[in-house]
Write a structure and sequence with these properties.
The complex is a heterodimer of chains A (95) and B (243). Chain A is mostly helical and 95 residues long. Chain A has helices at residues 9-24, 26-40, 51-62, 65-77, 84-94. Chain B has a single domain, classed as Rhopdopsin 7-helix transmembrane proteins, CATH 1.20.1070. Chain B is built from eight helices and no strands. Chain B has helices at 2-5, 8-37, 41-71, 75-100, 108-131, 138-166, 172-196, 207-227. The relative contact order of chain B is 0.13. Classes of the chains: A mainly alpha (95), B mainly alpha (243).
Chain lengths: 95, 243
C-alpha cells in the first residue's frame, strides 16, 4: 500500500492561498505569481517566509484583495488556521 | 451641455451620436475582460454578467438613435424599454459577484445602512411619480414604478460598495463601477421627474450623467483589463538571482 504522508503546514497554506486566488478568477493567481517574481524574485512558497511581499503585491494589484484572501484561507484551513504561525502570516498579509 | 445652446434639435442629434460610441466602447471593453476571465471565479462571473448588461444597453442606444434620427417609430419605444430593463438583472448579478470576494468584511451594520438607503430612495421616488397621475391604471403604475424599483434594488449593493470605499477597504479604481451605477441611478431619477413633467427631450443636460456613467464604467473595466492583461514571464536570466 502506498505510504502517503500528511501535507505539511506550509503545503496546506500554499494550497489554501492558491485556492483563494483562484476563486476570485483564474488570471488572479497568474498575475499575483508573476508580480511576486518580477518584484521580489520569489514564488508563493517563498512568501511563507516573507508574507509582506505577498501583502504588498495583493494591495498593489487590487487595493483590497488581502481581505478576501485572508478570510478564504482562514475558512479553508479551519482549526489549523488558528495556529500561531499561520495567524501571524495572515496578520502580516492583512496589514 | 454646449449643444443645448444651439437648440434642442442639435442637442438631440449630438447626444444620440455620442451615446452610441460611448456605450459601444464599454461593450467592447466588457467583452475583452470577459474573455480574459473566461467566466471562471467570482470576477469571471461578474464580468460575464457585465458584458450582458453592456450588450443590452448598447443595443438599446442603437435602437434609440435609429428611432430618434430616422423614423420616430412609436413601437420602438417599447423595444427600447425592454432592452434597458433587461440590462438591470445583469447589472445586479454583476454587483453580486463583484462583491462576493469581500463579503466577509460586510457587516450587519453596513447591510442595514444599504437597506435603509434603498427604502429612503424608493418610497419618495415612487410616490412622486404616482402623485402626478393618481388616476393611473395598474399597468401605468407598474411602468412608472419599475425603473425606481430596479434602481432601488441596485442601490443596495452600490451603497455597500461605497461604504467599503470610504472605509478604505477597497481602492478607487475598484469602486469606479459603483460610482458609475450611482450616477446612473441619479440620472434615472432625474429622467423620471422630467418625463412625468413632460419636459424631457433627448439631449437634455440630465443625459450628461448617463454619459459620465458610461465613461466611468469604461474606465473601471479598462483599469481591470490593464491589471489582468496577460504578462510575459521574464526569463530567469541570471540563475544566481533565484538562489
Amino acid at each position: 500500500m502506498e505510504n502517503r504522508s500528511m501535507p505539511t503546514r506550509n503545503e496546506l497554506l500554499v494550497i489554501a492561498l492558491e485556492d483563494a486566488l483562484n476563486e476570485m478568477g483564474e488570471p488572479t493567481l497568474e498575475i499575483v505569481t508573476n508580480r511576486l517574481f518580477q518584484q521580489y524574485r520569489c514564488n508563493l512558497v517563498d512568501c511563507l517566509e516573507h508574507p509582506d511581499y505577498l501583502g504588498n503585491v495583493l494591495k498593489e494589484t487590487f487595493g483590497y484583495a488581502q481581505i478576501a484572501v485572508v478570510e478564504k484561507i482562514k475558512k479553508n484551513l479551519g482549526e489549523f488556521g488558528s495556529e500561531r504561525p499561520v495567524e501571524e502570516f495572515l496578520k502580516v498579509i492583512a496589514k | 451641455m454646449a449643444a443645448n445652446f444651439a437648440g434642442k434639435s442639435f442637442a438631440t442629434t449630438t447626444t444620440d451620436l455620442l451615446f452610441l460610441p460611448v456605450s459601444g466602447i464599454l461593450f467592447v471593453l466588457a467583452i475583452i475582460i470577459s474573455i480574459r476571465f473566461k467566466g471562471k471565479g467570482n470576477f469571471g462571473s461578474a464580468y460575464l454578467f457585465f458584458a450582458g448588461f453592456a450588450g443590452c444597453w448598447f443595443t438599446a442606444e442603437l435602437v434609440w438613435m435609429t428611432n430618434e434620427l430616422y423614423n420616430q417609430l412609436k413601437f420602438l419605444h417599447y423595444v427600447n424599454d425592454y432592452l434597458y430593463l433587461s440590462g438591470y438583472p445583469f447589472l445586479l448579478l454583476f454587483a453580486r459577484y463583484y462583491l462576493k470576494s469581500i463579503e466577509s468584511v460586510i457587516s450587519q451594520k453596513m447591510l442595514a445602512y444599504a437597506f435603509l438607503s434603498t427604502i429612503v430612495f424608493f418610497i419618495p421616488t415612487f410616490y412622486t411619480t404616482y402623485s402626478y397621475n393618481p388616476n393611473a391604471t395598474l399597468v401605468q403604475i407598474l411602468w412608472a414604478g419599475i425603473y425606481p424599483l430596479l434602481d432601488a434594488i441596485l442601490l443596495f449593493p452600490t451603497v455597500l460598495g461605497m461604504i467599503l470605499f470610504f472605509k478604505g477597504n477597497v481602492s478607487f479604481l475598484w469602486s469606479l463601477m459603483f460610482i458609475a451605477v450611482l450616477l446612473n441611478i441619479i440620472a434615472d431619477s432625474g429622467f423620471l421627474y422630467l418625463d412625468v413633467n413632460r419636459s424631457y427631450y433627448s439631449g437634455n443636460p440630465i443625459d450628461i450623467l448617463y454619459l459620465w456613467s458610461y465613461v466611468l464604467f469604461s474606465f473601471g473595466i479598462y483599469s481591470h483589463i490593464k491589471i489582468f492583461k496577460k504578462q510575459k514571464m521574464k526569463s530567469y536570466g541570471n540563475l544566481d538571482e533565484l538562489k
